[in-house]
Amino acid sequence: MKTQTAKLLDGKALAAKIQQELSVAITELQPEVGRPPGLAVLMVGDNPASAAYVRNKEKACAKVGIASFGKHFPAQTTQGELEEVITALNHDERVDGILVQLPLPNHLDAVSLLHQIDPDKDADGLHPVNLGRLVRGETGLRSCTPAGVMRLLEEYEIPLQGKQAVVVGRSILVGKPMALMLLEADATVTIAHSRSHDLKAIAQNADILIAAAGRPGLISADMVKPGAVVVDVGMNRVTDTSGKSRLVGDVDLESTAAVAGFITPVPGGVGPMTVALLLQNTFASYSRAVKK
Prior knowledge:
This protein is globular. The model has no long low-confidence stretch (mean pLDDT 95). The strands form three sheets. A six-stranded parallel β-sheet has the order 1-12-9-8-6-7. Helix 1 runs parallel beside helix 10 (270-291) and helix 6 crosses helix 10 (270-291). With 292 residues, it is an alpha/beta fold. The protein has helices at 11-33, 48-64, 79-90, 110-116, 128-136, 144-155, 175-184, 199-204, 253-256, 270-291; strands at 7-8, 38-44, 67-68, 71-73, 97-100, 164-168, 188-192, 208-211, 229-232, 236-239, 245-248, 262-263.
């Protein structure tokens, strides 16, 4: 059996540190603004995983002093009703961040709803205006998961300039913004995906390998350059032979940890960072209220 040599990138510990910093910053700024920051998470229907994510976000808000304006809607809620709620939140001065928890029931158009959110209150950083700002290198709210990955790499002082970075996955949630953020940090970036020929050869070239394809165990040890930094964004629930379910990433952690220089665990790696950056985006919108 191979022994682990890779150093763990501990997202859980860093997220706790960020939350502590935010708590202090909010306490200092609140007397000047006259209110706490506010985040509204909109959830439709009864998806158990979504409900758990929303609870985690609300707990994290409470911990740092962000007020929750979350709303839970029945599954049959119409597009028009949700658009009205988003418009009201856009104009609510107590609310600095708005996000729609995905997935939504099939009759709803998630993209159209996202477009309704005021870009300066887009806590998820996914509005086309914010993605455009990222492309142009302008200041704006950044997509939480890739921004969390960048913050994790920065915390562990992992150099990116001139490095070969490979992003496996091309979603608008992670893959595309991740590639743009790495490019902004002067890495040389390749985006690979399910249709890429010889994924193994592409991955083996990476100094920084980001797995964000949503496929359990996609990245095995023989695909990793010795000493590479491996960041596992995958969050896949699998059931073992005994019927127990557990959370795994896109990377075969056990074998890959014997080859990589740094690696993120699942859970406890990128997941907590996503929530921490959501809070940070909300605070960024809030702090702008002082400058107005």
